[in-house]
From TrEMBL:
Chain sites annotated for binding [4Fe-4S] cluster: C709, C768, C771
The protein's name: Aconitate hydratase B
EC top class, as a word: lyase
UniProt domain Aconitase B HEAT-like: residue ranges: 14-165
Binding site for substrate: R200, S243, S244, R245, Q413, D414, T415, S497, R790, R795
Family: Belongs to the aconitase/IPM isomerase family.
Family matches, as PANTHER family: ACONITATE HYDRATASE B (PTHR43160)
Molecular function, one GO term: 2-methylisocitrate dehydratase activity
Biological or metabolic pathway of the protein: Carbohydrate metabolism; tricarboxylic acid cycle; isocitrate from oxaloacetate: step 2/2; Organic acid metabolism; propanoate degradation
Origin superkingdom: Bacteria
Species of the source: Desulfosalsimonas propionicica
Cofactor remark from the record: Binds 1 [4Fe-4S] cluster per subunit.
Length: 838
């Protein structure tokens, strides 16, 4: 046996051993990588004693689709078979063309277009192309060929008639499912625990952790319910709140969805019912071809067999025949989305069909259900409506209007980044169309596993190859950097729910939509309504911007616009845009704390009206920071320099959009800051459960965390000034994580590291640290005061109780070992000589 044959046989043996290990976990093997695929192509030509069925199944169904390296090897091999340059006793030329047609887009497209000229295989190639929508620039080649080639003409006609859509079965009249119901609020951390973030790209493996921290034996429960013989539908009171992580939808759909032919280890479809489904989670479900239904679920019990009539909006109990819930389909296009395999495939396919029809001088296709557009209004536009309008080439867009704003800035972090990368590969993206795409490594930098190190290296390269800006591990938090790259009044997105620009507007999304926005350069958006938050008055001396942040839910609760209870949840911000006014003098970094916290309110987005002066100051600093990146060799250099030029152009002619005086809002909330006389903190374990300091004073605490994207240098310095008076080590475990390496360098140079060290602080690598809770964690059941963003159960540590407040409050709490009363707080702040920050 020669070396090569030995390799190929050992590839099969290794694969079978791996398959056995994964089967023991109840999951399929991993998709083939480039090396395995190369060995497989050799086996297909010279099978020796390999099992032909297994080898064919591997090439047909276990290689990732799109522009993965393994897919490239597969596509080149199949193309060579089709051209007769190679041969295989297991895959004929016809089968090779068929398999090329199952690969989505990317490396398979050019060979298929070439094969339109092959006398034997042209009809098979045409058939494959007719069902393919990830065509992009190759459209021109087919269109040109269609003038002289009948098969190419057939492809063009098929695209014009949306054959790719019509070939898929319609959503049936009835869907029978077994309800898998979990009571209360199920957030994305329940579906996709942060502590298991490392396994997110491996969807089946990650899905084994779903709901592990939420209910007893979730996998066994689902297996038992499946015995009833129907697919499961997930049912919850409030579903998908919390971070935007697409892995939550991936895990859920792994258990309730359907396999995608020729795409390994990913599922789509499935039904999710919720009294309330968080907006980002809702769109992640839409993107993945699931049917999310918002309805009253109180009449549904775990284990009920349900008959869903999607076209009628009715859910019946199969045993009693009684209607248990009614619903309206939302959005109007949802059944088309399910039929197309998801909202993203629908948009891509619809765009191809419309483009083809335009080139053929045909009118718009009538096959698709169109988004319902709102009527005309004589009223003016809000700030957000103007920003999105500008990104669509219009004066403004109205709430409810479907639009496709240009994506100027897109952010990706490292626990969703690998999934975004997979989605980019599936979208056949070789270069970003969004102006600036940035990748950070803030979630995995501090205590990486081997798998994280490999991901960090490969993802860095992947982003740079596509002309994105790639940071390094240890550089710091995604938002602390991405905010430094923004352009005023522009639109963007990011795969982290705190992607909430302080200048411009961002609509954070799951990794599928983020990949789409980065690759294609626009984003599908049903423009949400806006809620105006007007700040008036001045808070008492010694209070901070974090107290202003917490004053928003405080005032909303007082005014009956928000409640803390989960059943009968009231939240005026949910799915809407928070438009903040009245603090236009704020520095941009402080403004970010306000927009950041829109994530905790489940808002779709947030904007804050700022003066030109602080924005210009911010942009000037940012040009210096970006120049430093260029000097340090960061790439893509052209992308960074182009952004610096645009910043300078804005500084040279500084103009900001402003809301019209007669703009309409779905609701108004006034926050009178003069009524804020003491710090406000969010209490365990709900960021909405905000209380004044006097209500929680005296609570003993175990640990304090100062860090996250809610902090900047000034807060770290303020904490240092307070800690200086501690006179030694504090009586709690104190964690400090500077947001960026530039902040860390500044704090070190200014001597603050010495102060933190004397207080006994554990200094963390710049990054998310305890805020993410996926690496280092607080002790089990610890009571914590933290400056981080959210305090969902178990996020920071098992069974921990977390109070969220300012860095100043955290520092005083650390010194006392308990939450201070308002006087103690004031005294410490005054002793530290702190000036009011607002
Ligand atoms: S610091 Fe926290 S909220 Fe901010 S990006 Fe990191 S994990 Fe997300």
């Amino acid at each position: 046996m020669n070396d090569k044959t030995e390799n190929e046989n050992s590839m099969i043996n290794n694969y079978l051993a791996h398959q056995q290990e994964r089967n023991a976990l109840g999951i399929p093997p991993k998709p083939l990588d480039a090396g395995q695929t190369a060995d497989l192509t050799e086996l297909l030509q010279n099978p020796q004693d390999a099992d032909p069925g297994l080898v064919y199944d591997l090439i047909a169904g276990r290689v990732p689709a799109g522009v993965d390296e393994a897919a490239k090897i597969k596509a080149h091999f199949l193309a060579a078979l089709a051209r007769g340059e190679k041969s295989s006793p297991m895959v004929s030329a016809e089968q090779a063309v068929y398999l090329l047609g199952t690969m989505g887009g990317g490396f398979n497209i050019d060979p298929l277009i070439e094969l339109l000229d092959d006398l034997q295989l042209c009809s098979k190639a045409a058939d494959a192309l007719a069902a393919t929508t990830l065509i992009f620039d190759a459209f021109e080649k087919v269109f040109e060929k269609s003038a002289v080639n009948n098969q190419a003409r057939g492809v063009i006609d098929a695209w014009a008639e949306a054959a790719w859509f019509l070939r898929a079965p319609q959503v049936p009249e009835t869907i029978t499912v077994t309800a898998f119901k979990v009571e209360g609020e199920i957030n994305t951390d329940d579906f996709s625990p942060a502590s298991e973030a490392w396994s997110r790209p491996d969807i089946p493996l990650h899905a084994t952790a779903m709901l592990r921290n939420r209910i007893e034996k979730p996998l066994e429960t689902m297996a038992e319910l499946r015995q009833k013989g129907h697919p499961l539908a997930f049912v919850g009171d409030v579903v998908g709140t919390g971070s935007s992580r697409k892995s939550a939808a991936n895990s859920l759909l792994w258990h309730i969805g359907d396999d995608i032919p020729h795409v390994p280890n990913k599922r789509r479809g499935g039904v999710v019912m919720g009294g309330k489904i968080a907006p980002i989670f809702f769109t992640s479900l839409e993107d993945a071809g699931a049917l999310p239904i918002e309805c009253d679920v109180s009449g549904i019990e775990n284990g009920d067999v349900l008959v869903i009539r999607p076209h009628e909006g009715v859910i019946e109990n199969a045993d009693t025949g009684k209607t248990v819930a009614e619903f309206s389909l939302k959005p109007a296009t949802i059944l088309d989305e399910v039929r197309a395999g998801g909202r993203i495939p629908l948009i891509i396919g619809r765009t191809l069909t419309e483009k083809t029809r335009t080139r053929l001088a045909l009118g718009p296709s009538e096959i698709f259900c169109r988004p319902v557009q709102p009527g005309k209004s004589p009223r003016g536009y809000t700030l957000a409506q103007k920003m999105v309008g500008r990104a669509c080439g219009k004066d403004g867009v109205r709430p409810g209007q479907y639009c496709e704003p240009k994506m100027t800035t897109v952010g990706s972090q490292d626990t969703t980044g690998p999934m975004t990368r997979d989605e980019l590969k599936e979208l056949a993206c070789l270069q970003f169309n969004a102006d600036l795409v940035m990748q950070s490594f803030c979630h995995t930098a501090a205590y990486p596993r081997t798998v994280d190190i490999k991901m960090q290296e490969s993802l860095h390269q992947f982003i740079k190859q596509r002309k994105g800006v790639a940071l390094h591990p240890g550089d710091g938090i995604i938002h602390s950097w991405l905010n430094r790259m923004l352009l005023p009044d522009t639109v963007g997105t990011g795969g982290d729910s705190h992607t909430r620009f302080p200048v411009g507007i961002s609509f954070p999304a799951g990794s599928g939509l983020v990949a789409f926005a980065a690759a294609i350069g626009f984003m599908p958006l049903d423009m949400p309504e806006s809620v105006r938050v007007r700040f008036t008055g001045t808070p008492a001396q010694g209070l901070t911007i974090r107290d202003v942040v917490n004053a928003v839910p405080y005032a909303a609760i007082e005014q009956g616009l928000l409640n803390v209870e989960k059943s009968g949840k009231k939240n005026i911000f949910s799915g809407r845009i928070m438009e903040m006014e009245g603090l236009s003098h704020l520095p941009v970094t402080a403004a970010y704390e306000l927009t950041n916290a829109a994530a905790e309110r489940s808002a779709a987005a947030a904007v804050i009206s700022l003066d030109e002066k602080p924005v210009a100051k911010f942009l000037k600093q940012n040009i210096e920071i970006l120049s430093l990146l260029v000097r340090e060799g960061y790439g893509d250099r052209n992308t960074i320099e182009a952004r610096m030029e645009k910043m300078q152009a804005w500084i040279d002619d500084p103009q900001l959009l402003h809301a019209d005086a007669d703009a309409q809002y779905a609701a108004d909330l006034e926050v009178d800051l003069s009524r804020i006389t003491e710090p406000i903190a969010a209490c365990p374990n709900d960021p909405d459960d905000v209380r004044q300091l006097s209500q929680i004073a005296g609570t003993p605490i175990d640990e304090v965390f100062i860090g996250s994207c809610m902090t900047d240098i000034s807060q770290m310095e303020n904490a240092g000034k307070i800690l200086e008076n501690a006179g030694g080590a504090v009586p709690v475990r104190l964690w400090i994580a500077p947001p960026t390496r530039l902040a860390a360098r500044h704090l070190r140079h200014q001597g603050w590291f010495y102060t933190y060290g004397r207080a006994g602080a554990r200094m963390e690598v710049p990054g998310c640290s305890l805020c993410m809770g996926n690496q280092a964690r607080v002790a089990d059941s610890a009571v914590v005061v933290s400056t981080s963003t959210r305090n969902f159960p178990h996020r920071m540590g098992n069974n921990c109780q977390v109070y969220l407040g300012s860095a100043e409050l955290a520092a005083v709490s650390a010194i006392l070992g308990r939450i201070p009363d308002p006087d103690e707080y004031r005294n410490h702040v005054a002793d530290a000589g702190l000036v009011p920050a607002i």
